[in-house]
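Let's sit down with a protein and look at its sequence and fold side by side. We need material for that, and I hope you will provide a protein of your own picking. Once you have written the record down, we can walk along the chain together.

***
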Amino acid sequence: MIETDLNSLWFLLIAVLWMGYFFLEGFDFGVGILLPFVGRDDLDRRVAIRTIGPVWDGNEVWLIVAGATTFAAFPEWYATLFSGFYLPLFLILVALILRGVAFEFRAKDRRPQWRAWWDRAIFFGSAVPALLWGVAFGNIVRGVPIDAAGEYAGGFWNLLNPYALLGGLTTLLLFILHGASFLGLKAAGPVAERAHRYGALLALPTVAVAGGFLAWTLVDAAGGNRGSFPMAALIPVAAVAAAALAGVFPLLRAKRDGWAFVATGVTIVTATLTLFMTLYPRVMPSSTAAGNSLDIYNAASTPTTLRVMTVVALIFLPIVLAYQAWSYWVFRKRVTREQLSPTG
């Protein structure tokens, strides 16, 4: 019973890590994608970048921890996932590296051409992961070809199916909307005004796309493509996501920045939770034979490994969370054009 409980605990912790990553890195991606639209001049673009400058690298730690935790707790899941999804994950990694380099190198030279190239790198380095993470999770939930040895048996084109592509469009739009609400909360002046305008413009299409993706997920779950959670548990969580998303448009129009950010954040967290609830106790369903699916039992590490990981997590996780909360508190003030010199 202890081992079984630990398997479920680590599945839950991985779900929490991905919810935290999408919530935090989601607005980072959104700000990066909106950069050429909210920044009409270099000073405006510096304001937008400064809103995430102190926190973007800390937000990416959630991805590193999620990957390391998956490797340690469920090595079979990690191996199948990274071998089957090699190309999209490689593209995500390249985009994240390019984006990180752009943040650091943009200010090394004041020439407009130099900064323009790095601004493009920030845009594409944000848009590619925002799209491909949705494609990846769409495939995980839908199921992929897995053989009897637990290995991915499909090709790259198997990943480009309508459900997964809709998932990619959903995360792309959600993260842009999340970034717009964050800019409204953290920036001031023209950048915040344009963020409000673009957020309000994207809110209704995002409701349509994300609502369609959630509805498709629930229809598949009702048809049998779900784990242990009944529809009576899935529907309320998905309903919270839909209700929070529906509230973003009027909040942005009213310039209720804090509540708009909360609404987009609740949408991302509950939508991600819906996907993990649809999976449990599976971690990678097989589309070829249900018996080939990976779950929290046949993909897990040894009970001793899970026990040691639990002790380590109980010691260090509160410290990491406290430090990140402190960093957000220190950099809580809005960023304005007046704070930044035009030649800095």
Q: What stands out?
A: The first strand starts at residue 282 and ends at 284.
